Amino acid sequence: MRGGSERNGEAPPGNLANPINKKDLNMTANQPRQPARAASLHGLVIDHTERPVVDELAALRLQDPSDADYAAFLKNTPSIAAIAVRARHHAEETARFVAMVQNTDEATFRLHVGQLFSVVILNNIANIAVALLPARTAVDRHAKREQGYAVLGTLDGPHDNPLRSFGQIAFGLRRVDPVQVAHDAIAYAATSERAPEEPGRGTVHSLEEQATLNAWLAQGIDTDALMDEALRHVRAATRFARSLRDDDLGPAQYEATIAAQEGAILQQLIILARIALAPQAHDARARLQGACDEMTARPQARATLELAMAMGDHLRSMLASNRS
Q1: Nearest-angstrom CA–CA distance, 236 and 204
Q2: Quick one: CA dihedral 124, 126, 131, 133, positive or negative?
Q3: Is residue 33 part of a domain?
Q4: Is residue 97 part of a domain?
Q5: How far apart, in Å, do the first and last CA atoms of the chain sit?
Q6: Maximum C-alpha span of the chain
Q7: How many domains does the structure of the chain reveal?
């Protein structure tokens, strides 16, 4: 796989002089970086303050949702454009690390590699969040489409790479209407001067935040508890489907129940994707493949989970190779 958007023809970063090379950063460094604040890892001014990290999928999770919460979530999903801005930031930090690591000694590299893994994972989580969320506005449709092209731009190999197909489906890049694309791009350009702000959503972090990023990377994940949470959402969605089939619902109730059903399914997908991307979830594919295979009627959801599992598998392989 390679860095940079497949559409802009940028040359990828050079090979690293350390155990991680450019190819290992697949599905991560997908936007051009801003000028580095430090010329090398030796020049990083380390921030030793530990702060909370809220990844994009964690920000989307509902805690013990009611039926109304499911419906409200589906009808008021957060800005995809804002999530894409945060994804680009963490992609830029990834590319910034690659630039600074050239000719760095191995001891210094290993001292800072945890920061790299953290921003890589935060970027991947944001990319999957963008793919999962429905785009209802022109701005969000454009942001989702552009983020999808950026993710596809990280893929190596031939155009029949299975991940390329998953990415195209996940980000809605097949059978795109050129008129819609132009309309969405104009709408996005009108708002691009100011990045959307979303207080309380996902947090953004830089390589200097060593204590914060390393603490977050070291956190465990209870996959059993998350699978139980996903099953609760499945049961809720099944209950809503039964109500739609069997109950005598008025128009407003029917609409609210459909929204609640879709909200529950989206919450299930959020949990499954978080398991797929968790560095500690070494059995993620075994746990998730069955649920993924059941989504034959939802090709976009299935493709997104397949993409998340591939990202997670690769990141866990990177972590294992750098701990040996």
Answers
A1: 32
A2: positive
A3: yes
A4: yes
A5: 23
A6: 70
A7: 1
Q: Is the pLDDT of residue 23 over 60?
A: no
Q: Residue 314 has which token pair?
A: 């690769």
pLDDT tens string 266-323: 999 999 999 999 998 888 999 998 888 888 899 999 999 999 999 999 999 988 888 7
* 62 neighbors 267 (Cβ within 8 angstroms): yes
Q: 143 lies in which domain range?
A: 22-220+299-321
- Between the alpha carbon of residue 284 and those of residues 101, 197, 223, 278, 301, the distances in Å are 31, 33, 8, 8, 17
Judge whether 278 lies within some domain.
Answer: no
Using an 8 Å Cβ cutoff, are 115 and 214 in contact? yes
Cβ–Cβ under 8 Å, residues 27 and 151: yes
Of 300, 262, 31, the residue nearest 153 (C-alpha)? 31
Each residue's pLDDT tens digit, 228-240: 999 999 999 999 9
pTM of this prediction?
0.86
Number of alpha carbons in the 13 Å side-chain half-sphere of residue 23: 4
**Residue with the larger pLDDT of the pair 163 and 103:** 163
